[in-house]
Design brief:
Helix content is 27%, strand content 23%. The protein has 11 helices and 20 strands. The strands form 4 sheets. Strands 5, 6, 7, 8, 9, 10, 11, 12, 13 and 14 form a 10-stranded mixed β-sheet that branches. The model has no long low-confidence stretch (mean pLDDT 95). The chain binds S-adenosylmethionine (SAM).
Length: 408
Amino acid sequence: MEDRVLVDILERAVGPEKTRAAFDAFSLPASVSIRLNPFKWPFGEDGVNLVRRVPWSEYGYMLDGRPRFVEDPLFHAGLYYVQDSSAMIAGHMLRECLDLVSDSGRPLMALDLCAAPGGKTTDMSASLRERLGDDFRIVANEVSRLRASVLRDNVAVWGDPNVIVTSCDPKTFARLEGYFDIILVDAPCSGEGMFRKDPRAVEEWSEEVVALCSARQRRILADVWPALRQGGLLIYATCTFEESENDANVLWAAAELGGEVIDYEYQSLPGVLRTKTGALLMPGLVEGEGQFVSVLRKTSPSGKTRLTPDCLRPLRNGLVKGEVKGRDFVPDPDWALSIDPPLDKYPSVELDRETALRYLHRDSVFVEGQPEGYLIVLHRGCPLGFVKNIGKRWNNLHPLNRRIRIDI
Ligand code: SAM
């Protein structure tokens, strides 16, 4: 991409004065940040190299440089999720607006429509659990089957039992009329905010792609709108700076579908720019990558549905603890990774880092002197999964599709 094209994009987004800082940031490496899992992380701020907290996320931290996450057993144990700090703004808006929708007399129902690989889903589940306890359900949906399987694994590793994973076209949700209190649409977009992170975003960018994305986003919003209850909130996010994909679509949805934009003091967040309808985060002005977010409240009436998300044939329907096979109860690997692992039901055994990585690589590992049967293996006290001790060796029950694939 020619510099002139990038300068035009940035000038349109942030105006001429801020363009220099943004332009310079695009030649720097992408930022790295993680968000801790508050229902698993036992270490406080000690013992890990957490550099600076993300201003809009209590559990978000900027890191200096990119560690080899794949070689950290705690990454595989779901203790944290690697997520761009700017993308954490959607979780912030959820927390800030939650009081507008809770208290409907039933568990809060949320839909994350474009959810893979699961950054915003995991943020959402932690926030809802902190605020509402067990009184919520999230349907995390991803239209692409391939990406939905990644989402399913990331949800399992994060460990919240109240997240259902589906792989449906947005239109399918129209059947659940008025069902959701909150819908998050993290829409597929022209990806300008990912230019530092993903060279393909630069190669694939064109004016035509922007126009196609804008039209597709409107279609997605219109398709899912019936599933939002009157008074419910739609959080709309993209990782682009294009007006036609951001403010213009939010204003279109408000006017055509029946909603009002929530007024919020975005500019009180350091480096965040307020746009006509929401917030824009721009590399160079914030530490992270590019992101847009806005929140709409539905004002138009919605019908009532008696269907439940089960009609969507979930890939994961909450937490499965295991299954009975003959006379054996075989625990599901996900149970060990849940936020409430069965440490009172199965003996556990601590593995050092090297053995933990070999377990996650699905090599055969064995520690003498353990009781026979199913054991939970831990690293630094955090569950990684199950093994079955059959006496002289262990069967490694780490799921094949989640094994570490590189040589360690
Ligand atoms: N929310 C995710 C996260 O935080 O990890 C990132 C979502 S990404 C920005 C957008 C997602 O929309 C992609 O996973 C993509 O497969 C999906 N998508 C693409 N086309 C779509 C469509 N027509 N309808 C719904 N989702 C679509």
